[in-house]
Design goal:
Layout lengths: L21 E6 L7 E3 L4 E4 L6 E2 L10 E6 L2 E6 L6 E3 L2 E3 L1 E3 L5 E4 L2 E6 L6 H12 L9 H18 L3 E8 L2 H8 L1 H17 L6 E4 L4 E7 L3 H16 L3 E3 L2 E3 L3 E7 L6 H17 L5 E2 L1
Parallel strand pairs: 3-4, 17-18
Antiparallel strand pairs: 1-2, 1-11, 3-5, 5-6, 6-9, 7-8, 7-10, 10-11, 12-14, 12-17, 13-14, 15-16
């Protein structure tokens, strides 16, 4: 497997100017808190040509569209495999009311009509509730929700699913030698470098102090090993600038692939066991 140059980089969260109609994503860790201005037709799907690319296997390439209609907007399913839902009901086309919840695969967006004052508060709550404030990654709550959904989808489709558990080696030494501000800078840099190594549709989260996890839908154990090695190399390739100090950092990683009948908690526990095996073996390595 080679590095994917088209990995998803969703629009930055933030309300569109002038309080116009928008979609605010409130479920689906990869897009939590993302706001999409509805200034024209917006097509949602896996295809990179869509106005917003939704990285999930149960999202069709062109899944649904939201388009202006009279004084508001209409959502229309574009013949998707798994359907488009509004407030829990499958729809082919439906006029939207402010506050409606549109589900496409694992993603849910709230439709907010122009002038709806709930928008900014909703955006802030969606982002804060599932984001780690230091790194900007999904937090443990968001990761566990995404993991449960990914396991269910993999089981239904008999598709592979793998997980990488990562831990910064000797992180306490960084804090002790350079201070907690430097430690925070190291964690933020580790998160950024690790995210650059992922594929489109993968999810990276900070699930503990210096522990991260990457959820890899569609990946076998061998593919996960390639992703983990890219992460390990990117992090160790150059020192991290932390308040003027150049700090060399390595990570250890444990891998696990979903077995038949296994749940998400068990999959994560197996990856954690292998992470600690990598640490016992000398750190700066991957165990599977």
């Amino acid at each position: 497997m080679t590095a994917d140059a088209t990995r998803v980089r969703p629009p930055a969260p933030g309300a569109p100017a002038s309080g116009g109609a928008r979609l605010v994503f409130v479920e689906g860790a990869a897009l939590l808190g993302v706001t999409v201005a509805l200034e024209g037709e917006v097509v949602l799907g896996r295809d990179p040509g869509c106005a917003l690319q939704l990285p999930a296997e149960d999202v069709s390439r062109r899944h649904a569209r939201v388009a202006p209609a009279e004084a508001g907007h209409l959502v229309e399913d574009l013949g998707s495999t798994n359907g488009t839902f509004v407030n829990g009901a499958a729809v082919s086309a439906r006029r939207l009311a402010s506050g409606d919840r549109i589900r496409v695969g694992p993603f849910v967006a709230r439709y907010l009509a122009a002038g709806d004052e709930a928008a900014r508060e909703l955006e802030a709550l969606a982002a804060l509730g599932r984001r780690d404030p230091l790194t900007g990654l999904a937090n443990r709550r968001a990761f566990e929700e995404a993991l449960a959904g990914a396991v269910a989808r993999a089981a239904r489709g008999e598709a592979p699913l793998a997980l990488v558990a990562l831990d910064v080696d000797h992180f306490k030494r960084v804090n002790d030698a350079h201070g907690h501000a430097a430690g925070d800078a190291v964690l933020a840099a580790v998160a950024a470098r690790a995210a650059e190594a992922l594929r489109a549709g993968d999810l990276l989260a900070r699930i503990g102090g210096e522990e991260f996890a990457a959820l890899l839908p569609g990946a076998t154990l061998a593919a996960a090993a390639e992703v983990a090695e890219r992460i390990r190399f990117r992090i160790s390739a150059a020192p991290i600038d932390a308040g003027g100090a150049a700090i060399g950092v390595t990570v250890s990683a444990g891998l696990a692939a979903l077995s038949r009948g296994e749940d998400g908690a068990t999959l994560l526990a197996r990856a954690d066991e292998r992470l600690y095996a990598a640490k016992r073996a000398g750190r700066d390595r991957i165990a599977r």
